[in-house]
């Protein structure tokens, strides 16, 4: 009688179904840095707008203040365009990174995921559920990518997502105030709200960098260690 060979402690070495997220992670971090740069530019434009509208509200007149107002308005428009372009580029690369992270995480531990892989992209575009589904997907990937047996907290993920939602809410309020502003005082208030919104966006982008770097690192260490779960034995046929 032949003694069966013992099963290996881990699955086979990483194959084509496991792909390194490092390159996409670095690209995402660079683009998030670009978002921060455009937000800083927007903060500068907001401060100029607040300064000149404050003078206009105080009754300052003349060609000088008119020129400053035109200059501030031009910078506000330019910063909005630059930020929009940076956000679109970052969103595309971030979703590519997250799709790879989700695929690897499913190989690590399929039981950790509460949602199908298609939601990795779709969750961001579905109204209402986009307020919590993306955070859930990232948190599940975090849990599946953590070292075996460790307790993975979601502090960075929760902080990033909280600031992201807060920034979106304040940004909508600021946009509405800007469109409806008809006096120098109202424009001044709208610019102050926009400044707060841009500050939240900077904080959210910095925390997003932390999430990307840490989650990419978790997966890289797990892939290189070869610590993959042993495959379930095939059911015996009767």
UniProtKB/TrEMBL annotation:
* Domain (DUF4328) ranges: 68-216
Entry-linked InterPro entries: DUF4328
Name the Pfam families for this protein: DUF4328 (PF14219)
Q: Which residues cross the membrane?
A: 27-47, 80-99, 119-137, 195-215
Question: Which keywords does UniProt give here?
Answer: Membrane, Transmembrane, Transmembrane helix
Entry annotated with the keyword Cell membrane? no
The protein's name in its UniProt record: DUF4328 domain-containing protein
């Amino acid at each position: 009688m032949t003694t069966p060979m013992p099963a290996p402690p881990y699955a086979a070495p990483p194959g084509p179904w496991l792909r390194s997220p490092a390159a996409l992670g670095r690209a995402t971090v660079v683009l998030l840095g670009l978002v921060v740069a455009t937000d800083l530019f927007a903060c500068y434009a907001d401060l100029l707008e607040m300064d000149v509208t404050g003078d206009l509200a105080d009754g300052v007149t003349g060609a000088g203040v008119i020129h400053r107002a035109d200059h501030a308005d031009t910078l506000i428009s330019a910063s909005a365009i630059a930020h929009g372009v940076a956000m679109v580029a970052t969103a595309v690369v971030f979703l590519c990174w997250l799709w790879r992270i989700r695929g690897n995480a499913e190989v690590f531990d399929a039981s950790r995921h509460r949602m199908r892989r298609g939601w990795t992209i779709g969750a961001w575009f579905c109204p209402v559920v986009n307020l919590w589904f993306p955070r859930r997907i990232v948190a599940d990937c975090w849990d599946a990518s953590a070292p075996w047996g460790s307790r993975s907290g979601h502090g960075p993920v929760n902080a990033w997502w909280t600031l992201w939602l807060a920034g979106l809410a304040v940004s909508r309020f600021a946009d509405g105030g800007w469109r409806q502003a008809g006096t120098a005082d109202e424009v001044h208030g709208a610019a102050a709200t926009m400044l707060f919104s841009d500050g939240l966006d900077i904080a959210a982008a910095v925390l997003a960098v932390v999430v990307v770097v840490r989650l990419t690192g978790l997966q890289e260490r797990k892939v290189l260690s070869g610590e993959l779960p042993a495959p379930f034995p095939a059911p015996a046929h009767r």
